[in-house]
């Protein structure tokens, strides 16, 4: 891809900084740790790194509660470390994307402290309102926080403030001109430091419906849903994204914006990536899709159609720091791993851009048995007793060695790592042709090589002809579905084909050509191939 369009098919690796690599032995990952491990990412073959928030923060929500948007939290290093990291990444040909958190600040941000202190006008930058009922003792409306409980907390003087997430994350009022000015300046600060783009946290939440109307029926602020909500995906957010796009485009680039947006449909999501808005939006429908060929195909088709209609690339995401790791979602154990390996090849074979969450290239499962006392996720702390929440996917990475912390750092690790992760470490998997790490490396290498291979192999055209292609000519993405048995997906793209068996049993297909890469051994006699289960 021409360098100006690098983001259209980029593979972007998500570094959850706190859990990636610890350089100073405090058990918490840091920016120097990331810099020291950049060669792993270069060798893996990704195009860019996305760093989760490393800004000054009380860490009520893993740094998504920012108290100073222009400074590095001492936990993670300092500005010189950020600068070094960006330079070192660029020297290796890796681009760097950082998080920006515009929907809310920390309750320790100077603006919120001023608001609590009663400084004139300071409350207008947030959503402060009187309560309802006798003595205003009831919250101003019935919205609930994503982490559980009311989306409102009361201040000692009786007013309420809105927080769609934890009480330590008050929502900003984007109608206030200083809010937009401040974030434009924050974006410039990091762009001037040389970063290549932003991942925009809660990009669908900054604007609330006028009058903050009740939902009725005690409905909850579910992150993903198909019904419109008065606090998410309001039309007004697009004005903000347009202004940010103008700002990004004013830099030599391209510098990109990636929306973390939850919208009720693929069409609504595509609005965030219109040509004058952000470059990409995470496509969480793929991540949410169960292990089902028909369902996956529908999501793939609808996702591609929606983004293609606005000229943007689709994105594919299997895991991130907010969801149960996909090895575990797909059933865990050997079966979960087999499926995760297959899903990785599917994701990397699809047109568009893909996100790899740290550790998925190692086939890490979710850690399900963390002691409650070790957990830090506010979602866990607020709805005590629930498991399956977000600490189990944030356990620090095993790099090498036989014992915890498996090379994560010289000290311990902020969340305990399971016994037996030595076999999953980067060192243990390197050079093992059957390892998940080597599968990812091979897939990423192939992904770079294949577009140059040119015309589809003759065998594929023949197969399509014989079977009678139901879908006709390839679409604008160069992708074309071919008929396949139930439970199997089969498509071509220029230069190669991808076939994906969701069944628990092997499937025999006419051999379409030479197998170049498979998630599990494929048998072929030249005329047919036997696709293994999962
Ligand atoms: C989405 C982030 O990915 C998540 O970790 C965070 O808790 C919320 N936004 C709130 O900032």
Describe the structure in brief.
The chain has about 525 residues and is an alpha/beta fold. The protein contains 15 helices and 19 strands. The protein has helices at about 30-35, 40-45, 80-90, 110-115, 175-195, 235-250, 265-270, 285-290, 295-310, 325-330, 335-350, 380, 425-430, 435-450, 460-465, and strands spanning about 10-15, 50, 55, 70, 95-100, 130, 150-155, 160, 195-200, 255-260, 280, 315, 355, 480, 490-495, 495-500, 505-510, 525, 530.
Q: Characteristics of this structure?
A:
534 residues; alpha/beta; three-stranded antiparallel β-sheet; 19 strands; 27% helix; globular; binds 1-deoxynojirimycin
Notes on the structure:
It is a single chain. This protein is 27% helix and 13% strand. The chain is α/β, with parallel strands linked by helices and 534 residues long. The chain has an eight-stranded parallel β-sheet with strand order 11-10-9-5-2-1-13-12. Strands 6-8-7 form a three-stranded antiparallel β-sheet, with no helix packed on it. A hairpin with a 2-residue loop joins strand 15 (488-493) and strand 16 (496-501). Helix 5 runs parallel beside helix 6 (237-249). The chain starts with 10 loop residues before the first strand and ends with a strand. 1-deoxynojirimycin (NOJ) binds at residues 61, 64, 101, 165, 201-202, 260, 321-322.
